[in-house]
Amino acid sequence: MESVRKRLAECSQEAHDLYLNQSVPYLDGPPDPLLFYRDWIGPNKPCIIRNAFNHWPALSRWTPDYLREKVGSKVISVAVTPNGYADAVNGDRFVMPEERQMCFSSVLDVIEGKVQRSGVFYVQKQCSNLLQELPELTDDLEPHVSWMSAALGKLPDAVNFWLGEANAITSMHKDHYENLYCVISGEKHFILLPPTDRPFIPYGSYQPAVYHQRDDGEFEVVDQSDSEKVPWIPLDPLDPDLQRFPQYRQARPLCCTVKAGEMLFLPSLWFHHVRQSHGCIAVNFWYDMEYDIKYNYFQLLEALCDVTAAGAKVCVNQSGLRINSDISDVDDVSSSV
């Protein structure tokens, strides 16, 4: 088992040595589709593209006053949490936000501080909510990114709208999409990890639950007892618990800030954690990844990581340390050994 762990670590090192960048590079304009596929999509490497959507009216139009006039009365889905962490591990639960239906103008009131509400509010519904809930805004941008659609030979599966408070944080996860993330106003702060760093990223299996705000304003966690456990990453890359997750010391995250008018290409299967400035507005385009040999190899990598983690879980050393059965974590069980 140790030889497998060593080889997994070497796989990550080789990726960094051979093709991964030490920081996220910038492109100065919209790329040629073929070159973009060759240089970024195929090699599965992120980059930030400037001047790629300067022609969108949204960049100048999407002020609070304009949005109130255009879509203020529209009812949209809003994620509400007590701490800003939606879809994240909290103790031994994977807790999802309370999904609340609100007028867009009411969300702006909260973000602008015109009204005081307990909780953290984030417009983050990811089922093409721009097209489904706010179609009135689609004239202010393009329905797809033409050079990306040409590079991939297809249109995006979803176009999502994001608006939230500074305390709204997206926990570390990965997606099966080629993602173009366009910041309209404010800025987004990303922590990125390549798929080849998967051996250093801990996973656990958690009972799913949702936040619910009671009449007294306090939030409670309500179990979804009829749902299967959810695999998720318990580590916070802003403050990693290296005693609990020592393998994360070997990870090599990239940090980048995407500013208004910039577009991040976030390749499929890259792990990412996201923060934002207060009131940041963004739109992203999800293009479904190709389920080809790249996906095949990643599935193998995941399986090998699971095998080595399972091997560690049953290891009891002479110091009386045992790995917790649900996660790559160490518990002191010397009294029971």
Automatic annotation (TrEMBL):
It is found in: Cytoplasm; Nucleus. InterPro entries: Cupin_8, JmjC_dom, RmlC-like_jellyroll. GO terms for molecular function: hydrolase activity; metal ion binding; peptidyl-lysine 3-dioxygenase activity. Keywords: Cytoplasm, Disulfide bond, Hydrolase, Iron, Metal-binding, Nucleus, Oxidoreductase. The keyword Nucleus applies. GO terms for cellular component: cytoplasm; nucleus. Residues 123-302 form the JmjC domain. Pfam families: Cupin_8. It comes from the Eukaryota. Its cofactor is Fe(2+). Its EC number is 1.14.11.63. Homodimer; disulfide-linked. Interacts with DRG1 and DRG2. Bifunctional enzyme that acts both as an endopeptidase and 2-oxoglutarate-dependent monooxygenase. Endopeptidase that cleaves histones N-terminal tails at the carboxyl side of methylated arginine or lysine residues, to generate 'tailless nucleosomes', which may trigger transcription elongation. Preferentially recognizes and cleaves monomethylated and dimethylated arginine residues of histones H2, H3 and H4. After initial cleavage, continues to digest histones tails via its aminopeptidase activity. Additionally, may play a role in protein biosynthesis by modifying the translation machinery. This is Bifunctional peptidase and (3S)-lysyl hydroxylase JMJD7.
